[in-house]
Amino acid sequence: MATTTTPTETKTITFTATKPQLFVESSKVDDAVSFYKNAFGAEEVTRVNHPKRKADQDAPLVVSAEVKIGSLTVIVSDIVDATAKEIGTGIVFWLETEDIEAAVEKAVKAGAVAEGELTEGEGACDAAAGRVGKVKDPYGIVWVICTPAKKTADVEA
Predict the structure, then answer these.
(1) What is the tens place of the pLDDT at every residue in 90-134?
(2) Range(s) of the chain covered by CATH 3.10.180.10
(3) Domain 17-87: which CATH number of 3.10.180.10, 2.60.40.1840, 1.20.58.1970, 3.40.50.720
(4) Are 77 and 127 in contact (CB under 8 A)?
(5) Contacts from 80-89 at CB under 8 Å and sequence distance 24+?
(6) Is there a contact between 62 and 49 (Cβ–Cβ < 8 Å)?
């Protein structure tokens, strides 16, 4: 009697969250978390310090500090080597709000630098045609602040 093999089924994988990781200069995680709280209303959720802290360090090496900004979860870590520093560059975060001016102003008051002027109109932002502002935080991370994307109603043909 011949045996029959069934084709291998492919399991669908669903991702439920995206957690960007930011690498900041060693021993600056506390400052970064404080900045994100002041500028963007972040809430610190968890923190993990490295268990083998060197005696000559003033502050423990932070493996990760997880913060929530709206519905976004971000992991902030101390840089541990040159490779991690390279990974931490070139990240851009998009934050949606109806009050662009106030959001940019609050971030600047907390220590960010505004990049360019607020823009408006079609094409101002790929995700939303509306007002857009951009700031760079003290750690070199760029934050684009724009109005929420307009939701379109489904149209039946």
Answers:
(1) 466 878 888 888 999 999 999 999 988 998 854 444 444 578 888
(2) 17-87, 90-151
(3) 3.10.180.10
(4) no
(5) 80/26, 84/23, 85/23, 87/21, 87/23, 88/21, 88/22, 88/23, 88/24, 89/140
(6) yes
